[in-house]
Amino acid sequence: MARPLIQMALDSLDFDQTVALADQVAPYVDIFEIGTPCIKYNGINLVKALRQRYPDKLLLVDLKTMDAGEYEAGAFYAAGADICTVLGVSGLATIAGVIKAAKKHAAETQIDLINVADKAECARESVKLGAQIVGIHTGLDAQAAGQTPFGDLNDIARLGLGVRISVAGGIKQATVQQVVEAGANIIVVGAAIYGAPSPAEAAREIRELVDAAAV
Ligand SMILES: O=C([C@H](O)CO)[C@H](O)[C@H](O)COP(=O)(O)O
């Protein structure tokens, strides 16, 4: 199995705390995600700052684009994003726009299936359009209501779409092995790392668990 990637969800609103957290976990993660609240609050300058500080890390900007796909995402790819997210519920025209912007910058597009009714259909159509990553995502509010991403992950993995699958939604040490075995290629972790007494130690543990589950 190819080594799954670990994506650190940087969900603070504070610019300096976001950069400091990135510094702490950098040795253990592959992708820095600038989370949706964080990018809305801090804007494109944070993308530029992390790009400059970490030229060799993958940088995902969790735009969750809903409209004006090419126009909105284009600026973030130009600023250094390797991956931008677009909502599956936005529809195929918007998804196609983000994919077009990504191609201009030799970058990638992730479809976020959050709140999509027919996730299999949306994933299939998005992949046909050229999306490289399908994101199974139980958002923070849905998590608070008791939902998890595990059932959807199994359903999408079974489709064999031939693209990477990302999973997000309360993933922690106890569930890392399960999501790797279910077929996730990108493991997104936020609160289990930034909420830990030592984020670096939590990230190191998750790295070990992911690598052990992937052999
Ligand atoms: O994408 C996220 C959320 O919608 C806010 O932007 C989180 O970054 C994602 O859910 C990962 O965080 P945890 O669920 O805390 O692991």
Automatic annotation (TrEMBL):
Residues 5-206 form the Orotidine 5'-phosphate decarboxylase domain. One of its GO terms (molecular function) is hexulose-6-phosphate synthase activity. It is an enzyme of class 4 (lyase). NCBIfam families: RuMP_HxlA. It comes from Methylomonas subterranea. Pathway: One-carbon metabolism; formaldehyde assimilation via RuMP pathway; D-fructose 6-phosphate from D-ribulose 5-phosphate and formaldehyde: step 1/2. Its EC number is 4.1.2.43. Keywords: Carbohydrate metabolism, Lyase. Belongs to the HPS/KGPDC family. HPS subfamily. SUPFAM superfamilies: Ribulose-phoshate binding barrel (SSF51366). It catalyses: D-ribulose 5-phosphate + formaldehyde = D-arabino-hex-3-ulose 6-phosphate. This is 3-hexulose-6-phosphate synthase. It comes from the Bacteria.
